[in-house]
Amino acid sequence: MKRLIDTYIRNEAEQARVRQAEELAAVFAERAAVHDREGSFPFDNFADLREAGYLKLTVPRAYGGEEISLYEFVMLQERLAYGDGSTALAVGWHLGQILHLRTTGKWPGDTFAELCRSVVKDGTMINTFASEAATGSPSRGGRPSTTAVPADGGWRITGRKTFSTLSPILDRFVVTAYLPDEDSTADFLVHRSDQVTLVETWDTLGMRATGSHDVVLDGAFAARDMRLSGGKGVDDGAGWMLHIPACYMGIALAARDYALAFARSYRPGGMEKPISAIPYVQHTIGEMEVELRTARAVLYAAAERWDNEPDDRPALKPELGLAKYEVTNNAIRIVDLAMRIVGGSSLSRNTPLERYYRDVRAGLHNPPMDNAVLYGLAAAALGEADE
Predict the structure, then answer these.
(1) Which stretches make up the Acyl-CoA dehydrogenase/oxidase N-terminal domain (predicted)?
(2) Cα dihedral angle (120, 13, 106, 167), rounded to 10 degrees?
(3) Cystine design at 363: which of 58, 172, 328, 335 (Cβ 3.0–4.6 Å)?
(4) Beta carbons of 263 and 276 less than 8 angstroms apart
(5) Architecture of domain 128-226 in CATH?
(6) How far apart are CA 299 and CA 326, in angstroms?
(7) Segment 285-294 mean pLDDT
(8) Whole-angstrom Cα distance, residue 354 to residue 247?
(9) How far is CA 157 from CA 148, 339, 366, in A?
(10) DSSP E strands: which ranges in the chain?
(11) What kind of fold does domain 239-386 have according to CATH?
């Protein structure tokens, strides 16, 4: 019988990539508990991802990458998170940023080409550090307190960034900074140097191995041509951010499968049949399936539309937001139901369920936030009367 997780595989090429991702996920699952408990960054996982060519999946073919679609990106991230949510979420930011730059043309062509070639040749990764303690997430529209001032040959950047996922492993990254002389905000590509300090602040309830520490810039230098376009380019609707719900969907699938295996095998008190024969357990499994199948249908439909309707991508923002909202909240519910099936032992650190429970809740705090999605849907609905 076909596995539920394989429902959305469309062809042999996707099947081959999925199997590779599943092999990586199986290895990562064996390491996940240690990295979670220690809060350590999984350098070993990222060495494996580089070796497997995973880091170049969204790089354009012109630069030696695979140039996969958003639909495939979602599918592979879901599989990777099935093994380790932290690793999947962290690498998703890198792959997603490359996809975003590929579709928007935000960066100068030469700068993007150099980055892509470095990803393919050296396993370079990238992320944008924008959040700050004082201003919160950039999705809320706050002006960064990090500043960039003119210097000989470029800019000197000073400030402190929070939620800097992948920070332990990156040799370069993008920062958003305010330019006082221009009263504007821009993005800068910064290379790690003595003026960049990693402060290991990441000690959280869930997603403990993403390396999302604070990064302090004390006059860090960015060359003149490393000032990026500051957000200009084609509006792609931020479809690349579907890597976030894909990750939480993968965690929910892992919790669901764990609970199913438990229900099929557990026979307490000398029962003749396993607990899967109990009507209440079957009802709970049915509830899990409703949440899971609904969320995946919304997620994959949104990804497919984004791929197939490039001219309408800005108009897809409500649908993309809905996918994140539906998947994240349903994933939390699925893990909760899985724990109800397994019972008190699900709280033990000897099982992965308690980690799934902690990790999946982090989705509520990844953009777009629930209230932003709801306001966006409301605006879209109210705007229909004006068309």
Answers:
(1) 21-98
(2) -50
(3) 328
(4) yes
(5) Beta Barrel (2.40)
(6) 8
(7) 98
(8) 17
(9) 4, 47, 26
(10) 128-129, 147-151, 154-164, 172-179, 184-191, 196-199, 213-223
(11) Butyryl-CoA Dehydrogenase, subunit A; domain 3 (1.20.140)
